[in-house]
Amino acid sequence: MENKEYELATFAGGCFWCMVKPFDEQPGIIKVLSGYTGGHKENPTYEEVCSETTGHYETVQITFDPNVFPYAKLLEFYWQQIDPTDPGGQFYDRGQSYQTAIFYHTEEQKALAEKSKQQLQETGPFNKPIATKILPAKRFYEAEEYHQHFYKKNPTRYNAYSQGSGRVAFIKNHWGEKNE
């Protein structure tokens, strides 16, 4: 199943549990991994990342087929999973490790991310500045196994978390039912 056409996209959107399911359900998405990137600590653990001492973000790394789900479409979908105006984290998860960021793997991805961010600022449903950073991709460290596809392993806890954090209501309020 090796395909040289596959590409990587890496997004930070707060708690990675809530970032896997939306992408996992899209056509052309080959794999979604929870993990950590952007920091200085090699092989960080979840506890270390949450301690805010590693510089890492909780992220998802997506392997995708750009012929089915192009990167520009991934970006559009990404914006609809987060509050891009919150510089302090996402919903009730606070701190640098929960901030939003797009980690680009190529100059083309960087250009598309910057264009997408500008369009969202100019035409999106927000009246505050877009706080999401656009950063070069660094080494990605896969999170512990119990974090992978958490929504499948612990659906009750996942649903309570995504609802209770305010994420589901925010998405519904800003983007409508289609992204629920």
From TrEMBL:
Pfam families: PMSR. Residues 9-159 form the Peptide methionine sulphoxide reductase MsrA domain. Its EC number is 1.8.4.11. Coiled coil: none annotated. It is an enzyme of class 1 (oxidoreductase). Keywords: Oxidoreductase. GO terms for molecular function: L-methionine:thioredoxin-disulfide S-oxidoreductase activity; peptide-methionine (S)-S-oxide reductase activity. It catalyses: [thioredoxin]-disulfide + L-methionine + H2O = L-methionine (S)-S-oxide + [thioredoxin]-dithiol; L-methionyl-[protein] + [thioredoxin]-disulfide + H2O = L-methionyl-(S)-S-oxide-[protein] + [thioredoxin]-dithiol. The active site is at residue 15. It comes from the Bacteria. Has an important function as a repair enzyme for proteins that have been inactivated by oxidation. Catalyzes the reversible oxidation-reduction of methionine sulfoxide in proteins to methionine. Belongs to the MsrA Met sulfoxide reductase family. This is Peptide methionine sulfoxide reductase MsrA. The lineage of its organism: Bacteria, Bacillati, Bacillota, Bacilli, Bacillales.
